[in-house]
Give the backbone structure.
Amino acid sequence: MPQLCVHTRLIDEVWEWKIQRILQIVREMGAETIVEFFPWAYFEDSPGNLDWQRADRILRHADNQGLRVIARMGLVPAWARESTGSQSPNTLNTLPHEVWDDFAPFVAAFAARYQDKVKHLIVWNEPNLAFEWGHAALSPDEYVELLRVTHNAVRQSSPHSVLLAAGPAPTLEPVGSPHGINDLLWMEEFFAAGAANWIDGLALHSYGFAEGPEAPPARDRLNFRRLELQREVAQRHSDEEMALFLTETGWNDDPHHEQAVSPARRIRYTLAALEFAGRQWPLLENLCFWALRYPTPTMNWRDGYTLITPEFLAKPIYYAIQNLARGQENGAALWLPPPVAPS
Amino acid sequence: MVASARRAFLISSGLIAFLLLASLVIRRQVPEPVVADLFPGGQLRIGIELSLSPYVQLQDGKTAGLAIELGQALAQELGLAPHFINVSQDGRFDALRLGIIDLLMVVDARQAAFQADILATRPWFNAGLVLVSHQDKSLQSMQGIGGRSLALASGSLADAEARRWQRRIDAFTILPYELPLYALDSLRLGIADAALVNALNARLYLRQHDLSVAVHEVSDQHVALALLAGSPLRWQVIDRALGKLFEKGTVARLLETWL
């Protein structure tokens, strides 16, 4: 089984005890790694003015629980978004070219400060989506250039850090869509632009949607094994086998999600995915579920991805993963069978 | 002493009268917002999420649903042409910020409140938890459930709520099921005394089953429209138009139609 991992959302927690409790819950589940977001905007509110308190407390508690942390870096502070002087509206993901030389030193400073605690860094997130790229023109070339700049800065500050390219979001968006670029097409261009020179590995995203974990991959379908197609692209463009991290995966069991599965099926698929990955994907270093918990309920289908509620109530899927991680049998379901009319 | 008190009374009365008059004059001078000025293209660009069933759904390849019809009614109320634009869950507020859309149709008011630059309108639906019980044995609150059985979906927000109740009232039995649907089946079949589910699940279930039940709101999840806070006049006309749709019974009719 690949190293079990879960995506957390600790950075927005106000109370430190919650961070501690969440990380205890991660460890008790049997996960050894978390992926956590460290937004640039939270740490550098004016140029050069770095305040690491929020990262310090998260990493201290992760260390206490013996957890490895993969850090995802992104989200642009206001001063950087507006640095071009343009009055045009921007978003938290707007990263003007002019501030790449500010973003890269931030990542480098993070890498250096936490080099004993954080080895893996993901630069940005799902750069094939318009929303994630600040609604600027999507460009694999531009992203590779951002990786080059960041790579050079991090190599100087923390030579042993492992720089991971952000995985594209699995999507079948048609050519010309304003929302995003098909992940496989995006990866072709990404590697053609020389990405392999500037990264140590790939942080891929591959969700199961409505299909089981062993459903065969196909270019026109989205399922768990889409990772195999993504890996094929990487292999064609790299001389060496690239380190692979599946940093977002899972199934959704919200009854109102159009590609949801039932809670029971979600458990079956999740456990089977871990076993399948263990058998078939020996090169996969981590398998990270999206997501352990949100700080507050989203009150929509996104809650169907979590393993525990905001109030720390563990869902049955949490216990199922825990049992598998401990090598214990998953016994009877934690819920009653569907009710039937008394005879 | 009396004279001075009387003088003070007269002065303060005069001051109050003057302020009232001045405020009336000022109010009369503030022009009412003109919809055509606020939406110069004559179009209302409405952000919807295709994945947000049951508010929006694809029927025969076309978008349909409560949010679509409410958006159409809203645009009509304003004398604008509705133009629906698909936005993603993650990018919905950015679509507002970037001016891609004028408003979002389905937003949890609490989530909107977390965004400093986003403002929700009055809510048009409460999708929070409801306690459903048989009409003849109606339970109106958590106190009534003591000694009885409560069906819910295991690991859901209802489950978390019921566990809180267990710490506050007389013992009761939780019947955890895999799905909210089964919790409501349990009530219908007389196995559970009540079911705790969200309002969406309850309404969709009760549309399909002819049951005489009492439904009591337990928690709030207000569904509202959302706009940029920086455009208060736009917010004002949209919120008012939504108010008009409530007055005309349009919102209630659409809720009945779809949920």
